[in-house]
Amino acid sequence: MRLRQRLEEVRSDTRLAVRQLKSAPGFTLVAALTLALGIGVNSAIFSLADAALMRPLPFGQAERLVMLWERTPTSPRTGVSPLNMRDWNVQGRSFEGMAFVQRGMGGGPLLTAPDGSIETAERQSTSSNFFDVLEVVPIVGRTFKPEDDGPAPRVALLGEAVWRRRFSSDPSIVGRLVRLNGQPYTVVGVVADNVQFSRPAEIWTLTGQFPDVPIMRAGRAFEVVARLKPGVTIAAAQAELNVIAGRLAIEYPEPNTGTGVIVEPLRAGIVGNDLATTSVFLLGVVGFVLLLCCANVANLLLARAAARGREIAVRSALGAGRGRIIRQLLTESLVLAGLGGTLGIGVGAVILRAAPALVPAGLLPAAVTPAFDARVVMFGLVAAMAVGVVFGVIPAWQATGGSLAGVMASESRSTTSASRRFRGLLVSGEVAAAVVLLCGAGLLLQTLLKLVGGDTGYRATSESVLTLDFSVDTGARSRYPTPEAIVQFYDAVGRDVSALPEVRRVGWASSLPYGTNELGRWTFEILGDPQVEARDRPVADYTTADPGYFSALDLPIVSGRGFNERDTLHSLQVCLVNEAFVRRHFKGRNPIGARLSLSAPPNRPAQTREIVGVARQTSGEPDAPEELLQVYVPLAQFPTGDVYMVVQPSAGAAETLTPLVRRVVARIDPDAPVRRDRTLEALSIASTAGYRFRAEMVGTFAALALVLAMVGVFGVLAYTVQQRQREIGVRMALGATSLRVTWLVFRDAGWMIATGVVAGMVLAALSGRLVATFLFGVDPLDPLTFITVPVVLVFTAIAAAAAPAWRASRINPADAFRCEG
Q1: pLDDT in tens, 268-327
Q2: pTM for this prediction
Q3: Which of these, 65, 291, 499, 689, could form a disulfide with 360 (CB 3.0-4.6 Å)?
Q4: When comparing pLDDT for 418 and 531, which is higher?
Q5: What is the number of alpha carbons within 13 Å of residue 79 lying toward its C-beta?
Q6: SS3 at position 767
Q7: What is the full DSSP assignment across 163-227?
Q8: Rg (the chain; Cα; Å)
Q9: How many Cβ atoms are within 10 Å of 641's Cβ, its own excluded?
């Protein structure tokens, strides 16, 4: 009986709450939209954090999957040698299986059989058991089998999107041929698009078998995924692999001395610490925004409760207990929160729909995709209900705490000093939150400006240089089986592209500024200097380039000479170094004429080259702790299939050259794979994508927080002026000037702002260590930021207080008495 009575009371309270909200449409609309804004942005960021930290990965029993890395004396975390992985798998007892995917393996063109059209497809090369270890079930066909493997396997798996787009979801594609880089591959199956690993892929091929030779033991070019046996912990697997790695260091000392193994959960390996920290950080930022929205709605409810003082007093006089009245007011808050939460979920869905355009390409791993799903809806509803309780309880308590006789005897629009103080405290809290976010945004913006404001080294403008990424098949059975054939292809393409009237200069190189490098880092030693152990030798980025590369970038040769047509495969082996290389390793000595011994990471035979020139320093990875060291060798002396064409236009935007260049390349070789085209400006933006994304997101939310805080200041001051209209009228009747009244309003604002700014600055200083993870070259207590933020708040506060102050100064004493009479 009591339960039925309670349910009836809930229904009655809900119906009354709906009627009350419908009777005040302006209040309801403003409060609901304010909540929708806060819950919407929180739902969107929750989706990112959920995808990165909590949502199950699209693999069978993903909790048992781990990633394996090697640790070397020169790198705390690097790829894995396929032969070391083989020995781990054979000697270990902790794993059901191990598989690998080749790092940095890009895709060539996908040639469809029906119309012969070419489309670039991102590709990954894997071991034959890769999909078995991940427990991936194909949509049609099958995944790879051990019998597919061999010295030069020619089988492929398609992703669902490319299957639907290029083959109209035809299941008979299984067993048919497609062409990659001009070579035929047999399609064995199709897998879902959510089966992504460290980076996006639309087609998968096999790496083939590896010979047991020293070069493969030292080549750490693979990412390894392994499945633990049931009941085996990561710690136990780590301990076992440590023992095996120790044995391999004794058996194969040259490539394995000083190396170790890292075992970590698959999510940690795919997501990485930076994205995980960013997700939590942004969730905290939007949490502040939601608190600001709650504070504004609480202020609206306090104002509404004060206006309903007589109504509440009458209910109390008729026998309603304080608890019953609080329950009714809290029901109104929950209904309002439900409305705001529903709208907020819609706002979150809109934001997530726009997310692909807002999030920089490549910032999120392929397996991390924010999506609007049931988890996001549930988060929005729970957040709405929690917010309804938080912003509803205190206003309800305040509204029912006054004296019955006092309320009945007072004017209808009076309010208590406790209520005014509490509303002022809420606004101070809003200001403090805005200060924290503004300081964080300022520090992140300072970092971004420091990263993008450095000297690039080249004199060509970034937007006037087009780059095209080539991946030419140089295998024994390809069209370019010899170094001479590769060079002839580059010369032919470069000659025909240079002949275009729209083109000024053309060049080739295996790397570009901002850390893009196809050949990696090579160890070196300066012949004649004291020798060091092989594992302790310094490393430098190894770049093969032709003379046109330096002219296309307007990259000066500051000493000696550049490359020329006499630097051929059979001439003296030469190289250039950059300025950082000279500063660090020659220390005032003349480098021209010195000889370097260079060795690739896979332990290839060393190259001996003479330094003939010094190139201007260019930008490496923007947040690298040290300057980029580079060694350039002539493309004719070290031709490679993975290169970039660099094109400078005669006039106009570089992007306009793309179709012209692609047509020239297709005319020379229809199968020549141009994977992508970008300007140097796009490369620059991509190199700082993480910093840019954080700065833009936090800056946007900080600006929103500032607006919400100033709306709170305006609302409290406007309400206070309305409630004190009679008092102000009396003051003016007794001789107070308009200037004096204006000062009273600004004084009230000043206390709220000053309290909030001081509290916010203290919180910002204490939270500096949390932001420091995302800073580069900027102190967490940067003086410029901590001076600018209070100044910005003072001016915005003056703007927010101006209208209420002007209204107070225009009050007519006679009208004030008449209105209150």
Answers
A1: 888 888 888 888 888 889 988 988 888 888 877 777 666 555 555 555 555 555 566 677
A2: 0.81
A3: 689
A4: 531
A5: 21
A6: coil
A7: HHHHHTT-GGGTT-EEEETTEEEEEEEEE-TT---SS--SEEEE------SHHHHH---EEEEEE
A8: 34
A9: 18
Question: Is the four-CA dihedral 772, 775, 778, 784 of positive or negative sign?
Answer: negative
Render pLDDT for 533-552 as a digit per residue (tens, 0 to 9): 766 788 899 999 999 999 99
From the list 250, 247, 125, the residue with the least C-alpha distance to 185 is 125
- 355 phi/psi in degrees, rounded to 5: -55, -40
First to last CA, the chain: 49
CA distance 266 to 129: 17
**266-307 vs 25-49: helix crossing angle, rounded to 10:** 170
**pLDDT(487) > 80:** yes
Type of residue found at 174: V
What span, in angstroms and rounded, lies between the C-alpha atoms of 474 and 483? 9
**Distance between CA atoms of 715 and 398, rounded to whole angstroms?**
18
CA dihedral sign of residues 134, 137, 140, 141: positive
Between 16 and 64, the higher pLDDT residue: 64
Q: Report how far residue 295's alpha carbon sits from residue 287's, in angstroms, rounded to the nearest whole number.
A: 12
Q: Kindly indicate the confidence band of residue 412, based on its pLDDT and cuts at 50, 70 and 90.
A: very low
Residue 530 region by backbone torsions, left for phi larger than 0, else alpha for psi between -120 and 50, else beta: beta
**Which 3-state string (H, E, C) describes 398-455?**
HHCCCCHHHHHHCCCCCCCHHHHHHHHHHHHHHHHHHHHHHHHHHHHHHHHHHHHCCC
HSE-up (13 A, CA, CB side) for residue 431:
32
Per-residue DSSP letter, 571: S
Taking each continuous run of H as one helix and of E as one strand, the counts in the chain are 25, 26
Which of these ranges, 46-55, 249-258, 399-408, 759-768, has the smallest mean pLDDT? Answer: 399-408
pLDDT higher at 367 or 102: 102
Question: Which phi-psi region, left, alpha or beta, contains residue 254 (left: φ > 0; alpha: ψ -120 to 50)?
Answer: alpha
Query: How many whole angstroms separate alpha carbon 330 and alpha carbon 336?
Result: 10
Tokens representing 767 are 């939270």
How far is Cα of residue 570 from the mean position of the Cα atoms in its chain? 47
Return the structure tokens found at 386. Answer: 């929690």
Percent of the chain with pLDDT over 90: 30
Give the SS3 label for residue 653: coil
Dihedral, CA atoms, 622, 623, 625, 630, nearest 10 degrees? -20
Q: Do strands 183-191 and 177-180 pair parallel, antiparallel, or not at all (unpaired)?
A: antiparallel
The predicted structure's pLDDT at residue 25: 81
pLDDT band at residue 332 under the 50/70/90 scheme: confident
Q: Give the residue among 512, 638, 617 at the shortest CA–CA distance from 571.
A: 638
Residue 501 is given by DSSP the state: T
- Distance from the Cα of residue 453 to its chain's centroid: 21
Length of the chain: 821
Token pair belonging to 140: 């049609």
Please count the other Cβ atoms lying within 10 Å of the Cβ belonging to residue 649.
19
> What was the pLDDT predicted at 324?
64
Hey, what amino acid is at 357?
A: A
- Taking the CA atoms of 185, 186, 192 and 196 in sequence, report the sign of the dihedral they define: negative
What does the block give as tokens for 730?
């009396």
Structure tokens that stand for 812 in this block = 């007519």
pLDDT tens per residue, range 207-217: 877 766 666 67
Count Cβ atoms below 10 Å from residue 308 Cβ, excluding itself.
17
Residue 261: beta bridge partners?
70
User: What phi and psi values does residue 325 have, to the nearest 5 degrees?
Assistant: -70, -40
C-alpha distances in Å from residue 781, one per residue of 274, 351, 777, 786: 22, 33, 12, 7
Contact 665, 493 (CB under 8 A): yes
In three-state secondary structure terms, 736 is coil
